[in-house]
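Aim 2 progress update. The chain analyzed this quarter is reproduced below.
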Amino acid sequence: MVKSGAFSNASIRGLYALTSLAERGRVPGASIGMLRFEGQGNISGQIITNMPGRTYQERQVQEGSVEGTLTVDESGLGFGRAEIVYRYGDGIVLTTAARFMINQAETSSTEAMAQSLTVMQEGLDPATGGLVTTFLTRLPDEGVFGLESLRGTYSGVGFAYGGLSPVSGTGYITFDGQGGTNASNVQNFPGANFGERVFVTFDTPAGQYTIGENGIGTITSAQEYEVGAVADLVVTRAKVIGGVKVAQEYFWFLRDLLPTGGLATSRISKQFPD
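Predicted structure tokens:
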């Protein structure tokens, strides 16, 4: 079996889901995406970034492409460096340097294949002033994405980052595999006075979702504080069933800020994994 210390550029190969947060800056930011690694250090893919607009409360969701290179350190311990270029549709081009670490891998008799990585951007994010941390998780080589990639009941805990007061929530969402959802969640909001908390339940029985062939999609619901709220999502873990990559976990962020000014995000797992 392959032993520790045997990582190389070839250890990072295939399709990886991208999720990232820009924290501790002037305002919060988040990204989702899907990256392809060729096993020789080349990177390509797509990204969707939720970044600040012209005013504090305004947000803009930008779609773009990703290209770059990476190099795993010769020590073979899983550390490495990357140079990445993000090109967004409105002409924004961001070039960043980053350090990464292979956190989890599967091994065969001849190679170690990275299953998850943590990437730390060297400089602060120019849009938010925050420190960007990115997580990459490997998806199966076989199968395709489609509406059936989300089916069954999923649950998790969400948090809102960067607001005037912390907000959290937990609940469930059920996908019918054909584009429809129903959900219920309980959220912990600030009350009228400092330190007071209020629990509010939101039921969304007639939501809709999409999922593209790249594993990126949307969820649209109707909640009391934001009618027609839209969240962007990416499948982060999947199992191939009948030729379909069925999500066992996904990550989402809400497009608009909450009334408290926070950016809501969550990592959601299937209650009964396939």
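The mean pLDDT is 92. The CA atoms of residues 114 and 235 lie 17 Å apart. These observations will guide the mutagenesis experiments scheduled for the next reporting period.
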